[in-house]
């Protein structure tokens, strides 16, 4: 059920009911604003996106090494003409861009010696000691005993053999849905249906996942997964505090990320954009900001797709990575920990397979590995990101990356399904590096 929701506007309309087409509209003209003079090609690109009706609004935060970000924006939080203009503190559903945040929380515990990168998951949850692997994943649940343990590295790099409701097929997908292994939310209607069967806590979620067979032997295949959701449960258990509190106290508070939420408070609700899907070339609201499901508490904090954040906040997180663990003199991780997290952590012999852009990931156009919760380029892209660029995207179109070779970081916020409706990543890279080249001349 959930995997289709992110892929087609028609499927989304089925979930929302026949009344949805009546809400179709064209974007209003963007509110007047000052142009980001230092990034004229990027500003022009954003203005054209909104003017042509590709999206209601877009915000980016672009920063060079050691410098504050430049914010570029166009459009509004919704299609309505009276909707607020978007800006650095507008709130967006970042979905799978939650994964790098969860991964860095785990890396903090690895840095402190409370977890090991190659430690078996069964050390924390004995239920994972005797996992089984499907013998024909497309047609049955028949399985054999696994011969390798799932490790922390496997969870961080999607090599644990776990499935995902957005990619898994066949009988295993039905089991995931039956047991509520769907740590993702789109709107109140879908959430009400899934919540009836979903586990009510991270610990219950992790224990229930252990009862299901794997799609591959651990450590042998890259497959997009719920690994970072299980990782959130591990962080919670090992740290001895609720996962969301650990993230808040060890990352959000010291980095002054004041607009990052698992549940958007009423005081910030007016900053939350409406999420859309496409019916043909028309935008249709999926989750209106004023009544968003993200104003409700989730079943538990979804470590793989649960955060709502501002461009300013995600830039703070990327600054920390770019600076080797510090922002404004406050250190949350050691430089060597950040370097390890942003390196290729795939097990020997495993290659990053890439994913559909509609899931929020990126296959890239150059040789690519996978680090802690995000992809890592293994070569330079001519006119684009350099070797070692780390980042990931979200199911509603958001993008984030840190490019250590070029010394630049970027956060791009939009909210619509599917994420790959427009070639945003490609277009932005071309505009941004055009601006950078002009600045050097």
Automatic annotation (TrEMBL):
Keywords: Signal. The keyword Signal applies. Pfam families: Beta-lactamase (PF00144). SUPFAM superfamilies: beta-lactamase/transpeptidase-like (SSF56601). Residues 1-24 form the signal peptide. Residues 43-429 form the Beta-lactamase-related domain. This is CubicO group peptidase (Beta-lactamase class C family). It comes from the Bacteria.
């Amino acid at each position: 059920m959930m995997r289709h929701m992110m892929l087609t506007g028609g499927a989304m309309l089925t979930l929302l009911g026949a009344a949805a087409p009546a809400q179709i509209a064209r974007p209003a003209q963007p509110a007047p604003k000052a142009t980001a003079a230092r990034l004229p090609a990027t500003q022009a690109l954003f203005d054209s996106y909104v003017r042509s009706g590709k999206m209601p609004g877009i915000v980016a935060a672009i920063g060079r090494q050691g410098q504050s970000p430049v914010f570029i924006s166009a459009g509004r939080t919704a299609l309505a003409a009276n909707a607020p203009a978007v800006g650095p503190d507008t709130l967006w559903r970042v979905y799978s861009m939650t994964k790098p945040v969860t991964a860095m929380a785990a890396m903090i515990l690895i840095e402190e010696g409370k977890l090991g990168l190659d430690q078996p998951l069964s050390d924390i949850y004995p239920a994972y000691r005797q996992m089984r692997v499907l013998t024909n994943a497309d047609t049955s649940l028949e399985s054999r005993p696994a011969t390798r343990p799932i490790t922390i590295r496997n969870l961080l790099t999607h090599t644990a053999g776990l499935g995902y409701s957005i990619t898994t097929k066949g009988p295993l997908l039905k089991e995931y849905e039956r047991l509520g292994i769907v740590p993702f939310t789109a709107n109140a209607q879908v959430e009400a249906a899934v919540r009836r069967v979903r586990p009510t806590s991270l610990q219950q979620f992790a224990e229930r996942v252990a009862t299901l067979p794997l799609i591959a032997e651990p450590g042998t295949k890259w497959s997009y997964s719920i690994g970072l959701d299980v990782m959130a449960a591990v962080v919670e258990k090992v740290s001895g505090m609720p996962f969301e509190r650990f993230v808040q106290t060890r990352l959000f508070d010291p980095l002054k990320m004041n607009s990052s939420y698992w549940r958007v408070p009423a005081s910030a609700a007016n900053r939350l954009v409406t999420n859309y899907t496409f019916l043909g070339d028309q935008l249709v609201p999926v989750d209106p900001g004023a009544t968003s499901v993200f104003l409700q508490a989730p079943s538990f904090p979804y470590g793989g797709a649960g955060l709502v954040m501002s461009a300013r906040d995600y830039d703070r997180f990327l600054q920390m990575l770019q600076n080797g663990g510090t922002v404004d003199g406050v250190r949350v991780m050691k430089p060597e920990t950040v370097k390890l997290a942003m390196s290729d952590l795939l097990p020997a012999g495993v290659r990053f397979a890439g994913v559909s852009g509609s899931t929020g990931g990126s296959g890239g156009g150059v040789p690519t590995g996978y680090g802690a919760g995000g992809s890592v380029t293994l070569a330079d892209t001519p006119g684009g990101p350099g070797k070692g660029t780390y980042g990931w995207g979200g199911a509603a179109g958001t993008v984030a990356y840190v490019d250590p070779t070029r010394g630049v970081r970027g956060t791009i916020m939009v909210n619509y399904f599917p994420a790959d409706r427009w070639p945003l990543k490609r277009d932005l890279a071309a505009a941004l590096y055009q601006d950078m080249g002009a600045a050097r001349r």
